[in-house]
């Protein structure tokens, strides 16, 4: 098979012609046209030399070749081939099945689709909803105003501050492929010291979350400032900025468009959100953790179902997909807690009738 | 604490007044007004008697009471309290930590937010995009036309067929709480015979996926037919229809708005999609598996990264969130496969420098 990269223009032209032809069509298709190509990922990131070779050959996806052995071969959009099976000399852990969360988030098309969908929704929201409200002078911040509770949220008008999108970094904008690979291969649990070394040395072993680069580039072109609010350490600000650049998500400048956790600071993000909101009107937020939207979601010792209900059973429910944008992450985070009895409500427990006999 | 149910009107009035005041505001808020209340789940599903009591008392969320002991108590929107900790006599497995995927999908607010977001996007798409195209007579099916490939997709105009939304059942419309509880508590792997018994006897141990009931009700009111396409067995059609009713997602009528897998039929869904498309114009699809959109995604023996790339690196990428709507499911499915070496591309592997020494 001959790996080929799909030209950006082709994707847009075709999809607009065949599928999206309505009023919101241009809106929805725009982020795809925006980036350097179609949605990319680490496995879709050829080296400079490979990229050059692909451009010279430039076969079209779907094109059928007759291979030297006479067989018919169809060109795909893949840019790298999967590793050969049965790599010799690899430790046993490498060949074995990865944990389900890792398989899902970093390996599945399902998770990639969820991410693309979230970034499409973000872009669509900025373009349609914020575009409309901007014209009417009715833009409000999506950061909970001081004194809000989850049951009694309040949002304030923005005045004339410039509009910004605030998002988390890890597993929201960047996939930490290198770190997760190392942890999975060794079967180790999370270690803050190892993570600190990862922040310092892993800037080129990452990928953009599918859809992120295109949506952020499109938002910047429309005049929105993109601001990252992360619990990565201020001590590795330069390396984090480099990782964001590497993934096509930059620029990110410390204390302006990049806010990180200072030595000894708590892990909550409300304080940094407040600082950002002094200068910007935050019209959209994106994250993979509830704490990326408000620290109120992380009340200490909150029972599992109370925390879940605070998302779906309060006045905040309508914000998901309309101001607040969630990215998938079943691999780590504050949402991963509880035993079976904490998670399944008593009236929804079933016992296999065969077991009862 | 006094559990109280939030009246439906309140949620909408408040959110429209405080947050959503633009052109798409009515659109986005509508599904919330649609259902019997705010987003509900099993833990948010009181018995009839409980519901009656709550209506009589009807305290408002956020309201502060002075409790009999003199302490101040604020009313929440929760309708049930979490189970007490340290349940005595329970087997060890019940108290222990649940698998991460279970914690995420059934317990976390993060997954609930992802689901609400997906259904908001579906409703928004039907209202804005399809509404516009319907006026112009430019509606196309989102089912891949015969002869399509993932690299060369084609979509056909609908003519005058009535418009429908086709969606999967399990972990797309319904959360199978009872079954997953039983499996987690026993530490068992999936067993088709046990699943068959679940289909037959578990209709009341489920919950609607957050956001589903409201979005489907709103779509029906706008004239869209809601059709379920599931690999549940035709033999338990009545019980599956009852489960959908119970969750507030019905009606579902076999061979019209409910399509199930017949005895000995393959697990692919394209054949049933084709039958549905003979009578309806399928303008949106929702699922938690790529096979809910096209069987082409499940080519046998496709390498992990090739399958993932078929989602994000092809002409199909712009459909996620705009015609095709993905729901989260890191617990089971065809996307959960592969070892570490299949998932992480060679150029994104990192080794902790401390390990190298």
Automatic annotation (TrEMBL), chains A, B:
Signal peptide location: 1-29
Protein name: HAD family acid phosphatase
Residue numbers spanned by region Disordered: 40-69
Alphabetized InterPro entries for the sequence: Acid_phosphat_B-like, HAD-like_sf, HAD_sf, Lipo_e_P4
Species the sequence originates in: Sphingomonas agrestis
Gene3D superfamilies xrefs: HAD superfamily/HAD-like
Keyword vocabulary terms for this entry: Signal
Domain of life: Bacteria
């Amino acid at each position: 098979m001959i790996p080929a990269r799909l030209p950006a223009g082709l994707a847009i032209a075709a999809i607009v012609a065949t599928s999206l032809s309505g009023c919101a069509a241009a809106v929805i298709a725009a982020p795809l046209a925006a980036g350097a190509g179609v949605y990319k990922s680490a496995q879709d990131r050829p080296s400079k030399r490979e990229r050059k070779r692909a451009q010279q050959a430039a076969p079209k996806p779907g094109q059928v070749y007759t291979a030297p052995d006479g067989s018919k071969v169809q060109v795909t959009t893949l840019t790298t081939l999967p590793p050969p099976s049965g790599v010799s000399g690899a430790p046993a852990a490498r060949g074995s099945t990865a944990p389900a969360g890792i398989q899902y988030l970093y390996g599945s098309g399902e998770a990639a689709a969820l991410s693309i969908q979230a970034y499409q929704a973000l872009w669509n929201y900025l373009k349609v909803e914020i575009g409309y409200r901007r014209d009417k002078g009715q833009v409000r911040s999506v950061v909970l105003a001081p004194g809000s509770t989850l049951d009694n949220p309040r949002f304030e008008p923005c005045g004339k501050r410039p509009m910004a999108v605030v998002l988390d970094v890890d597993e929201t904008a960047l996939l930490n492929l290198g770190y997760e690979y190392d942890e999975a291969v060794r079967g180790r649990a999370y270690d803050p010291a190892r993570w600190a070394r990862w922040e310092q040395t892993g800037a080129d072993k990452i990928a953009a979350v599918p859809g992120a680069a295109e949506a952020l580039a499109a938002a910047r072109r429309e005049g929105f400032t993109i601001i990252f609010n992360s619990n990565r350490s201020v001590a590795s600000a330069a390396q984090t900025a480099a990782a964001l650049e590497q993934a096509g998500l930059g620029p990110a400048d410390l204390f302006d468009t990049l806010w990180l956790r200072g030595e000894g600071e708590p892990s909550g993000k409300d304080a940094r959100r407040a600082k950002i909101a002094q200068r910007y009107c935050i019209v959209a937020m994106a994250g993979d953790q509830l704490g990326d939207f408000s620290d109120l979601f992380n009340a200490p010792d909150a029972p599992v179902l109370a925390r879940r209900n605070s998302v779906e059973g309060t006045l905040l429910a309508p914000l998901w997909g309309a101001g607040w944008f969630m990215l998938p992450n079943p691999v780590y985070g504050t949402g991963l807690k509880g035993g079976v009895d904490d998670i399944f409500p008593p009236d929804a427990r079933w016992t296999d009738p065969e077991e009862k006999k």
